[in-house]
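Convert to structure. Protein one:
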Amino acid sequence: MLSMYLTNSAVYRFFMVKASFTEVMFKKGEVMKRWLLACLTMLCMVALLVGCGSDTAKDGKQGKHMNVGLYWFGETLDPTHEWDAWTLTRIGAGETLATVTPDMKFTPQLADSWENVDPTTWKFHIRENVKFHNGTPMTPQKVKESIEYTMKQSARSAKAVKIESITVDGQNLIIKTTEPNGSLLSSLTEPAFVIMDTADLKDVASKPVLTGPYKITSFTKGETIELAAFADYWGGKPGLDTVTVKDIEDNNKRAMALQSKDVDVIQKVDSANRSLFKDGFNIQDVAGVRVLMLKLNHTELSPLHDKAVRSAIAHIINYDSMAKIIGNGATPGAAPFPPSANLGFDSIANKPMTDVAKADQLLTQAGYAKNANGIYAKDGKELSLTLAIWGKDTSLYEEIQQELKQAGIAVTLKKLQGPGEVDTLGTDSFDMVERAVITMSTNDPYWYLSLFYKTGAKANVGAYSNPQVDALIDQLSVTFDQNARANEAKQAQQLLVDDVADIYLMYPSATVVSTTKVKNVPVHPIDYYLLTKDSTIE
């Protein structure tokens, strides 16, 4: 304000001098008068501009600045620490060898091409003329060191890639795996594998040295990340000069921050807050890669061992109601993978539809009949199920409880301490259990299928087992062609639907809400993608 005052004072003194001068010179001719008036007009315009300033100037920012509200930060910005790297790809700071497009296709990023040489050998051609944020050239040797560092620091990441060795051959990176790994490409798109300069790790927890369009300038845990455009970015000039990313985990606070224009764009908005963004805002929704489902107990300890009972429940549940309860653009469920996965959702046969009469027919054929209490019973034993839940919001499962009760199936809700307790549940302690799963986190079906449906897998808590599904999962691990992998996943999905392996309630949406000034911040089915080089603000 002081500088603005001084500037304006100088302009005022100039006006006074010029006014006196004009009075004298007026006698010398109309031409001189007109010239002076033109000068005064220009000076007035300058004064107005100096006095008004700009939004970015007021915020202490220069050029185009965007404020972003995220629903989660990692504890650090170290790519190898747990899931913290997801923040790095969201904010446009970190990049991987390949990435995933919004239509769920792999596309080059720091590798401009790749090929599978043989079942255990991959060749990646590393993009030339890429620099790290510290100005150091990104070479194939640097990429090798980055991947090896990630594997050393993160056991989870090392297990996913199954890499035996990495060698450099000119501009190529040659990766040998310990066994055929058809998911290698997908695993290398996981944010933990963002490429960083491992020779410069002194500030890796707060300022990792990466390659993206935006360079991290400061990090305050749980509060903000400040970024600046990287002038030497290989993909061209970024659309923003600076970015402030804010950690706003509370849904209401994040929505209010956007509504009040404290931020320009946010991820995730719940149904209750969508009405805040009718005018002057854009809401983008897309079916995400998550599924909310009920994992079912397939052992003889549960009535759900009988496929007829599983199928009856699948026909009682109102999937439209499930989606409406969650709201926010959620899509009704029916299959293991959401439509966004591009695994033939529309062509799947036998997808369950709400049909209570069909459910009654199935239960009657299975030997059940309603007793005096209006509950299905068989051999004198009522059909009573335990549904284990762990989330804070229980409304969805209370609705399921009511729907099943009205149809004649008793359900008891069993509250767990948290999602971590699910994997340790004994099959004698539940019939159904709440589960929220990312099905295509790296645009690949193998992880989800192998973890949740392979016989004996840890997350297969209901002991589902189908040799045909097991064979397809095993085949996925050694199939490299993307079209062939998709076909194998489709076959597995159809078998799971036919078996009523689980009940797939709905697919939450991925959502981005922004002011109308924000441009080119696309919504992505995978929500660890957000800012791009082309993101900008008017």
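Protein two, convert as well:
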Amino acid sequence: MTQSWADAAAGFDFEAMLRQSLAGDLAAMNACVECCDAHAAADPERVALRYESRDGHGGTMTFGALKEAAGRFANLLAARGIGPGDRVGGLLPRVPELLVTILGTWRAGAVYQPLFTAFGPKAIEHRTATAGTKLIVTDAQNRDKLNELSVPATIAVIRGGAGAGDLDFDAELAAQSPDFAPVMRQGEDPFLIMFTSGTTGPAKPVMVPLRAIAAFKGYMQLAVGLRADDVFWNIADPGWAYGLYYAVTGPLAMGVATTFYDGPFTAESTYGLIEKLGVTNLAGAPTAYRLLLAAGPELAEGVKGRLRAVSSAGEPLNPEVIRWFAEHLGTVIHDHYGQTELGMVLCNHHDLDHPVQAGAAGFAVPGHRIVVVDEDTLEELPVGQPGILAVDRENSPQFWFQGYWNMPTKSLRGRYYLSGDTVELNEDGSISFVGRSDDVITSSGYRIGPFDVESALIEHKAVVETAVVGKPDPERTEIVKAFVVLKPAYEPTPELAEELRRHVRARLSAHAYPREIEFVDELPKTPSGKLQRFILRNQEKAKAEAAAVA
């Protein structure tokens, strides 16, 4: 019988949970031991990774094989003086070498840094310079993006793509011993460094401590409902928090194989892989699920009834998607909420019994107390009154965020962490998402900081100033729209707009470029000169609402 959420929340015992879920303890632990060695010791032939390439070729890696490969990479790092606390980056697609890089970094006691393959040089430079990254593993397709690094990072290239001055990843690994004693660290020591977009300034660094592994496992067990016999696929890229936390760390910490697909998302490839591998538990972002819906029920027929559970994260899930998945795929899809700074903390749980209502993000993952507060007074608000989603830090032993690394953190106020998201408490105790309270854009599940896009646009010779907002979009939730003031010498033409789009895409990333550009004579500002993005955002929202009723 499934445990009730109320009982699980009330009976949560942090110390007992740590003893049950970790191979080590907060005084001495290692992420590679938690996610690999502990399972290799029990059964070295147990599958840890299923991988599939875009051309249909694939295979598996066992926990035993991964342990050996991680040992070789850890020796490679140690030979170059890279060890506990140092940052190692991975700029790789979803290939086995990515997992070897992650686990080997952890084995050495170092901190893994994800570098999303869609990032351009500007985004990579900021993240590596801020982190002081010592070594980056990449492939031939992404190698050129690293030519502008200001940090003297060693660059290792997989599959024979190494150029002059680079390390040949495969040859170097083959020359190393697989034996490397894992470096034990403490629970508060970091094992990941993430970057998250905010309203102002460049992306901010988040150090994720080792003790977060226990929280990641809790989410996988209770919200995702992951079981030992599941064939699990999280389609999110490990270059982002949801993929790295819950396509890599979470399932492997549970001893359950993960799935890597190195190819673009299409409905056909998704259904094909579900059928080929026998996927039973699926996780991803609403954008992917909306694209499955748009592809129609005919494609879905071949896998109807195969998926036991589906989880959605990144932005609120449309109720239409929930109904469609039930009707045409014969499965339950649940909405989950989290942030890079938190992991997933508010969910409709697959493995706990509680009411599920359309539009609600759900109930707190046990070990967290999630409340709705007034942003000014920090007063906890009653049912039906909109406020800011907050974590009660004093009563949330699974909460691990301690502030941005070497930066001030406005979201930590008194006993609360303020998420920046507007929510409401429901009668049944669940919480419903209302919207973001800041300028951060959510597009296709990605959080995009307007400052990053504005900074890239300003670099173009034609641009005087710019403001970037989210424009409502039925498919992507929002798209990035830029309002641009040009220098007098330049004409506002469609050709220039396209040039600016290409410029941002090349400099920043493939998902963060402005899909729409509007040339304007001036931008709305306060008397002191502060940009008022909310005026432009509200303007776009009003236009979208008018178009919907027209």
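The longest helix spans residues 63-79. The mean pLDDT is 92.
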